[in-house]
Amino acid sequence: MVPPALTRLAKTVHAFAVETRGVFLPIAGFMLLILIVVAGAGTDFGRAILIRARVAAAVDAAVLAVARDLSVKIMTDAEISDVLNKSFQSNLTSLNLEGVSMGNLVYTIDPVEGTVEATATANVPTTFIFMGGIGPKTIPVSVTAQSTYSLFDVELAMVLDITGSMNTNNNIASLRTAATSVVDILIPPETSESDSRVKISLVPYSQGVNLGTYAPLVKNGNSPYTPCVTERMGPQKFTDATYNFNGQSSNFFGGGTTKCPSQSPLRPLSANAPALKTAINGLVAMGGTAGQIGIAWGWYTLSPNWSNLWPSASDPESYGKDKLKKVALIMTDGDFNDFYDLVAMNRNTCNFRGQRSDSTEAGWNFHDSRNGFYWLPDRWLGGGCLNGTNSYWQGQYFHDAGYNDQPSVRARRLCDAMKEKDIHIYTVLFAGSNGPSSNAETLMQYCATDPNTSYFKATNSQALISAFQKIANQIQSIYLSK
């Protein structure tokens, strides 16, 4: 709307300019009008530039909103239009666009290249340049934005450290928030399981992994007292070869500890966001750190060789499938310090290594060569030590576990094998107030697919949450291309 004072001024100048009773006065009046228009043109064009920038921000936000959704779920044309326009209008309402006439938002989707493009037009009213009929009443502006979106389906294994140290400063609560944010980004609220392009498995670990209802089949009655599993034996130890379910031997051991973790079972691949978030919210920290076991079971949830163990809805796709990403997110807050072996020993050694007075660490027999201790879960859950030489699953814990001790060595072997299967590994080291050792940092950098872009070090709770969110956004692979 033109201010009344300017309207009166324009009429006066125009009347002055067309006055024919003099020679100089009409020329002077016309020149005065030109001067006003020229001087005011900067204001008109400046406002048009400002409005264009504001509309551009709204279009950018709209195409990014659609790209985020297209990256993680299947959408109809109506759903795309709805998300695009709602985001665009929501951003416009916060802008000062009084008097601006907006055209329809026009968009195109390229499912081959994976791009979404939108164009918005607006007519910005002028205040000065239309005076005397010299210039237009509006200045048209047009904005186009384009964003890429991921063309890949995703299988993500979240391998999460919920050992006793995560109780420090209530770090376990920060981990719950961080893991939940990954689910919210990759499986947005109200996304149906059938439409989701992302499936996530949850693999909490401490001194082992709790397989829950899947344990009986894997263990085949071997140490049936808990749902816990630890390490694999034999030539398959660092492979994803199909588990042995022939009724003879499972090649796994049920951990024999209440810190396996007992309250936080593994969940195979799922697009059921509420169920995943409920499981994450129930994570309880306890026990030592057998991170290599968590890594192995994270791999098994992504391996097509393990499809028969999981429900059909959780079956991993084949390796090398077109437009499929298999991803592992491995998180720890310190050194890996627990490991297990099937060890042959006589009854005296069994009794020595398996003795304990209570269920605390102090009750286990201290290690005979290192700062740590042994325990024999078989010894206490399976009827004690037998006469003669027999094989028992033996756990070992090191207070000062190093990079070249078995937990880290085995973790590196597993990470190497996963990378050979083209599984992209992200790692997160959560450095608490005391800070983890350099061993933990070196291990996480080693396991990451790219230590520069796929390894994150979080020094506080907010940094942990931010690292998880950055990983989720990297998995989405969206960006404004123009």
From TrEMBL:
Kindly indicate whether the keyword Cell membrane belongs to this entry.
no
Instruction: Describe the location of the Putative Flp pilus-assembly TadG-like N-terminal domain by residue ranges.
Output: 23-69
Membrane-crossing ranges are 23-42
- Sorted UniProt keywords: Membrane, Transmembrane, Transmembrane helix
UniProt-listed Gene3D superfamilies: von Willebrand factor, type A domain
Top-level taxon: Bacteria
Protein name listed in UniProt: Pilus assembly protein TadG
Organism of origin is: Pannonibacter tanglangensis
Print the organism lineage: Bacteria, Pseudomonadati, Pseudomonadota, Alphaproteobacteria, Hyphomicrobiales
